[in-house]
Amino acid sequence: MSQSLPSGRLAAGLAGLLLAATACNQQPASGDATASTASATMPSDSAQAYATAAPAATPLGKTPDGTAVQLFTLQNVHGLKATISTLGGTLTSLLVPDKNGKLGDVVLGFDDLAGYTSDLYVHENPYFGALIGRYGNRIKAGKFTLDGKTYSLPLNNAPNSLHGGTTGYNRRVWTATPGTSAAGPTLTLRYHSPDGEQGYPGTLDVQVVYTLTETDALRLVYAATTDKPTVLNLTQHTYFNLNYGHNQDILGHELTLKADRFTPVDNTLIPTGVRQAVAGTPMDFRQPHAIGERIKQVPGAAPGGYDHNWVLADAMRPQPELAATVHEPVSGRTMDVYTDQPGIQFYSGNFLKGNLKGKGGVAYPQHYGFCLETQHFPDSPNVPKFPSTVLRPGETFHSVTEYRFGVRK
After folding, report:
1. Could you say which of 373, 376, 398, 402 is catalytic?
2. pLDDT, tens digit, for every residue of 174-214?
3. Class of the domain covering 3-42+53-407
4. Is 212 exposed, middle or buried (0-12, 13-18, 19+ CB in 10 A)?
5. Which of 291, 297, 260 is closest to 276 using CA atoms?
6. Is 321 a known active-site residue?
7. 33 — phi, psi (to 5°)?
8. Alpha-carbon distance 310 to 262, whole Å?
């Protein structure tokens, strides 16, 4: 899971690593599998020239404990906009054009900070747009053993632990530094996670860099170091709807997953430990399928739908590769997901109930958004044959995921 770097500490020497990462994910060449997807630029008759600038900061308010929260806006040369809150590093909105060049928001969330701090939201905790840690996804029974010692975690998704526990990184206020790069405007977020937080060992320094590239992609570069052996699985939990505000669900979105295996789960959504072939099952998205086409046939998921990990590789890859493509036929919008992670969790918004009202007071019912969370496999600390999620002192975890937007007319 980790790459050893000489510095061993995040603050001491990741600048060059992250700078290199901003250049490692260029748009596909003409021979790439996604070359037919056009760049999501504004049409020539309405295009505007936007100067690349450091993201602007806006005070968003304070959390219930009085911590100030800021909102940063990244805008690229084509007018695409991403807004990110320091509460949870949350992507609160993402404006990308449709096939007619009209900008539209494609992510679920709220209009103000109150939505993300309300008692109902905290109770339901759907993790809209948030950075997830220390361990994304589920750990069975909230326990794992590392180097002969057993650690206990909060059972916030009984009988298991989910997304880092009761107060994961999605509930923390991150330190933000806006900037620019050759690729586009950036926002660097940092969080210092103390030893024992939510039961996890080791003091962890985490850094996530968001870049809204001039080639119409939202890139995330993750980095982390620790002073004790620990487990780590960082991811991002945005709910997408590529025709948000028009479609009432995402069941008509067409999904392709570049995976021939998945990890089946038990009735608490913990992987059984095997890698099963997708062939002949409703988990086979090697060719495009509408999300709703076979959703009622999905095994082992409650209350009905996809919430599974697909196997992209058996270990971290040396560079990001195409993992998934989504096409929304009405708007024409497309999204390609590139990652170096070995797995991707496709979640079809099964647990949305309609009781949370988002932007503009719109209720979010079941299947109103989908997530594609790049990751290591769920419960990996308890399954030795899964790719390791152990991070040790002297190592630096590094990973890149990119969401590339385009249109098909």
Report:
1. 373
2. 999 999 999 999 999 999 999 999 999 999 999 999 999 99
3. mainly beta
4. buried
5. 260
6. no
7. -65, -20
8. 4
